[in-house]
Every structure is written in structure tokens, then in C-alpha cells.
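hiii, so i know i said id send this last week but things got crazy w the move. better late than never?? heres the sequnce for the chain we talked about at the cafe, plus the structure i predicted for it. fair warning i was half asleep when i ran it
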Amino acid sequence: MSLYKKRSSRREFKEAGDIATLVAGIIIASIILALLVRIQRGLLGIVLGGIASILAIYWILELKKTLTGDLRLKVRDTKGWNSDIIEDANEILIVGNVPGPEDKIEIHLHEGFLEVKAGRGFHELVKLPSKVVGFTRAYNNGVLEIRLKKAQPQT
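okay and structure toks below
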């Protein structure tokens, strides 16, 4: 039930944003049309005002698409990274292809995630299946092997 509410509230928020964008576009287009008609009296002013209004609406919609599409925080899965994750009782082994030289490879642990950066803009964030306390790495012929030591359960 709570998932349904979240989805409907997002949809309502998006619809409200669409309506607000449309109203703002109409207001801006009306202002431009009024100014152009006032400056260019007659039919030419109306034609120029109409063209300006259409362009204003177009660019408002394009800006809205850009802002809503590109500024979202994205957490990617490991689908794009050719890797294997093997887990046993004491450690997690991650083996995958990584481009670039060994000195360009950076590995960081962040609260349940492993971040791997390398050459050619390679950047992957892997969700770890359990808590870890440290890691070792080996790199040979483009293949990175990361051994993560699992945290011992508190008793």
C-alpha cells in the first residue's frame, strides 16, 4: 500500500510541474507577444509575436526535459561492467575487466559499496552483499581481482 502512495504522489508532483511549466510558458509568451505588438503595430507585430511565443514555449519545454533528465542522481548496477562476484564464508572476491594502466586504478570502500575508478573514464559502484573491513587487489593484463575481507559478526 505504501508503494502505491509513493508512486501516485510522484505522478501528481510531475503533473503539477507540467501544469506550472505550461502556465509559465503561456505567461512568458503572452508578455513577449504584447511587447512585440506594441512595438511593431499591425500584422507584422502579431506574426513576430507568434513566432517569438512558439520559440519561448519550445525552449521552456527543452530546458525542462534537460533538467529533469540529467540532474537525477544515478546509481548504476554492475550490468555495464564485465565482472564476477564470488562470496564465501570469510571473503568476497570480485574479478573484472578494467581498462587502463595499474597506476590509474583507484578503489574505495563506502558504507556497503565498492567504488572502482580507472583509465578512460571507467567508474563503477558495486553494492556489496555484506559488511567488509579491508581488501587486497591484484591487476594482471587488464583483469582486476579484489579480495574483500568480511567483517566478523559481533557476539
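btw Confidence is low (pLDDT under 50) at residues 1-8, 70-78. thought thatd interest u
miss u guys!!
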